[in-house]
What does this fold into?
Amino acid sequence: MADNNDTTDTESTLSNARRQLERAAANVDIDSGVVERLKHPTRVQQVSVPLRRDDGTLEVYTGFRAQHDDVRGPYKGGLRYHPEVSAEECSGLSMWMTWKCAVMDLPFGGGKGGIAVDPKTLSEQERERLTRRFAEEIRAAIGPKKDVPAPDMGTDSQTMAWFMDAYSMQEGETTPGVVTGKPPSIGGSYGREEAPGRSVAIVAREAIDYYDWDIEETTIAVQGFGSVGANAARLLDEWGANIVAVSDVDGAIYDPDGLDTNDVESHDERPGMVSGYDAPETLTNAELLELDIDVLVPAAVSNAITVENVDDVRAEMIVEGANGPITFAADTVLEERDVPVLPDILANAGGVTVSYFEWLQDINRRTWPLDRVHDELEAEMLKAWNAVRAEVDERDLTWRDAAYVVALSRIGEAKETRGLWP
Ligand SMILES: NC(=O)C1=CN([C@@H]2O[C@H](COP(=O)(O)OP(=O)(O)OC[C@H]3O[C@@H](n4cnc5c(N)ncnc54)[C@H](OP(=O)(O)O)[C@@H]3O)[C@@H](O)[C@H]2O)C=CC1
Ligand SMILES: O=C(O)CCC(=O)C(=O)O
It folds into this structure.
């Protein structure tokens, strides 16, 4: 695993997460032993996942499940299918899930996992076989009261359906609560798919209001037009903002007068259609990050903004849709320039919040209508926003430090109350 003393800006996810923790802990009255413990995941499981390809050949992929901390409840977090998935990346991402659940005051801890694979190279049947085998390999570590996976980059509700079915077959009973983000026909929650994008939009809207801007005058660029980016862009568009650029892995489309985001097909609807869209201008992903706009929403990959390009970022505000899109060093530069950064652990927390609603619906065998999900998500996001905003106002902290203070205070209190180290 990467060393936290690494001072370069080729920052690993775990190193970034640890540096953020160390910095924020200085603002919280928390036992230093607890902070030391929180720099490490409880455990990281690594498994080999054999896959019989459609052409009859066999390939073996590596899968992971990192479980960071469960003092407040079962481990919770997504499964990512991406070539760069590693033990180190899952560990850092699982730390962020611990803080995210605590900021939202959900009764969960943090987990994250995935398989080092490019899902675009697999057929649907291959993705199904891979997912079922992965579920079997990590079965002992997960469960509705232990560790509850969900979708992340490269996975979706269908992946969760296969995962739930494979787990249930081994258990001998249908166990919907083992994963969230399932299709509603098998116990998934309405509104889970668009929830992380919805929360990004809610936090952007509140921040725009906080700084006394007019949303109708606000220009926004969104990097990544997948589950998070497309839903955030479309909602902000609906609320009157001017979405001038969006991108997929191949590049960006740009219209200074504003794009019709409903006309652009997202990754889920038809992969590759963003860069194929007939827009007035096309840009590279690097150029999108440098646009002279009000709000930038990086909603694709980690480390999109580093010391290499941060000086070229001209947005007045950044709302993090992806997990960890800004390295620790670049974040410091943005702070010096007084660019507000609304952090991932607050902004995209709508996903895990609706996952929590789904988990409750599964336990109770009830289905909430979509408007109830939207209303409850709005209420939970505003509660978390107000808690974080209070720290910003009272203690003049950055938005990220303020969100960490809220999270770490709750985690520290839970650790102390349970008395884990007699
Ligand atoms: N899904 C969820 O529930 C949640 C996800 N997140 C985080 O949000 C981020 C995005 O996840 P999600 O929306 O689910 O992922 P998706 O797979 O649905 O979409 C990812 C999008 O990013 C684009 N993309 C991929 N690589 C790059 C790149 N190098 N540069 C620019 N664009 C790129 C993809 O393009 P293409 O279509 O061409 O592949 C696609 O448009 C991740 O960091 C994830 O951890 C956070 C909270 C919840
Ligand atoms: O819904 C969940 O449980 C987790 C979603 C996730 O992985 C994330 O918020 O990064």
In short: The CA atoms of residues 48 and 62 lie 5 Å apart. The radius of gyration is 20 Å. The first strand starts at residue 43 and ends at 52. Residues 1-8 have pLDDT under 50 and may be disordered.
